[in-house]
Amino acid sequence: MSGRSRAAVVLTALAALGAVLVPSAHAVPGTPKAPDTAVLDGARLQRTRAALDHGDPRLRRAVRDLTARADAWLGQGPWTVVDKPKPAPGGDVHDYLSQAPYWWPTTAPTADNPWGCPYVQRDGQRNPEVDTGTDRQDVEKVFDSVYDLSLAWYYTGGRQYARKAGQVLRTWFLDPATRMNPNLDHAQFIPCKYDGRAIGVIDFSQSYTSVVDALAILATGAPGWSARDRAGMRDWNTDFRDWLEHSAFGTEEGAAANNHGTFYDMQLAALAYATGDRALARRTVLDARARRIDPQVAADGSQPQELARTRSWHYSTFDLVAYTRLAAIGRHIGVDLWAYRGPDGQSLFKAVDYLLPAATGAAAWPHPELEFHRYAASDVVHAAADAGDAAARRAVGRLEAPPGGDLWALRPAAEQLDSIAG
Question: Which residues of the chain are under the pLDDT cut of 50?
């Protein structure tokens, strides 16, 4: 894109001159304070910012990749749940709505039957309504943009990034006319069949911890992000945490035996940490040892529930995104999830090591996979290496960089790097 190209040229020139990327936006000159992030290590972010200010060339290259992403968001959004063409069941436009992807209408929509019901399943055929008629696509843009923009502000001081992040957050979560209600009662619904489903919780759990961390970053002094904004988001997150913990859909999702359950734990623990319920956060991480790792990770490190999928590589890395983030939350509350060993020797280190031959290109992935991308494992290997896994450390230099560059040095928390759709 032309905007990205212009940004890259400017930043390259500044780096060559040894200039500071953008003047600091903080009231006190120098490195900003460490954010109280739930997943990211705030002290590590602060050290990285200090190294960047001292001209670390590797970090400057990573910041160019990050700011290219952030610059692309400046002209987009903000997004809101109230602008979808049809409201969620019940008629409240403030309720989040997403739709089961493989279900299709059988008749043309009318005023009396706006969805064209009944719906029938066409397995593997994705209904385009999923991407245009609900909130799913927009909420992913909210999550991604706020994360990129808050990190770009923290590392460069660029006020435009903080102000855009604030606009996106206020529009989606806070402004009375456009805010989302703090529930997922209508996620993954099937028109005329189910008003919502528990598995729709993963619409948020797979990425919302990035927003939780972005809020902590902005709270270190971002321009335009007020005490009222901070209080409003804390209230929203508290209400959402309570819904997640106590609603029928939340408890059902928490009982899931595969990646859905792992992501549920990660999201609940992060929300508990961010809203001050450290006891719930600690209990959630501790319970994941026997409740998640023991039944989900085999003695050899494989994840049988994920290997059974047609996209076994994707789902094996996907589940480990949740586990490595959950372990990162544990670090803040005195729980070392990486050190845990199950009754058959199961561990997160073994689960990551199981991926290393394919992640480094040393061997083919020996299980079904419709769309193999070697780079999908890069972040979880980084996470294991940082946690002390010698095999993962040796593998880091042979990883495939994801599209858009390897941003681990700037945001050391695993993301799902390949497509989640499908």
Answer: 1-29, 422
Helix (H, G, I), strand (E, B) or coil at 300: coil
How do 119-121 and 103-105 pair as beta strands? antiparallel
- Cα–Cα distance, 137 to 339 (Å, whole number): 37
Distance CA 33, CA 29 (A): 11
* Nearest-10 Cα torsion for 304, 317, 315, 239: 110
**What is the reported pLDDT for 85?**
87
Chain position carrying tokens 């480094």: 360
Cβ pair 205, 241 in contact under 8 A: no
DSSP state of 345: S
Q: What CA–CA distance (Å, rounded) separates 308 from 315?
A: 9
> In whole angstroms, what is the distance from residue 33 CA to residue 154 CA?
10
For residue 124, the model assigns a pLDDT of: 65
Tokens in use for 10?
A: 């400017």
Give residue 351's identity as a one-letter amino acid code.
A
C-alpha torsion sign, points 78, 84, 90, 96: negative
The tokens describing 40, both together, are 């990211």
**Three-state DSSP class for residue 332:** helix
pLDDT 10s digits, 168-202: 999 999 999 999 999 999 999 999 899 999 999 99
- Containing 121, the helix (H) or strand (E) segment is strand 119-121
**Cα–Cα distance measured from residue 25 to residue 32, given in angstroms and rounded to the nearest whole number:** 10
Residue the block writes with tokens 């035996």: 257
Dihedral Cα 8, 12, 13, 19, nearest 10 deg: 120
Dist CA 170 CA 164 (whole Å): 10
Rounded to whole angstroms, the Cα distance separating 180 from 356 reads 41
Predicted TM-score (pTM) of this structure: 0.89
Decide: helix, strand or coil at residue 151. helix
Distance (Å, whole) CA 322 – CA 326:
6
CA distances from residue 8 to 48, 58, 66, 217, 335 in whole angstroms, order as listed: 21, 15, 10, 24, 41
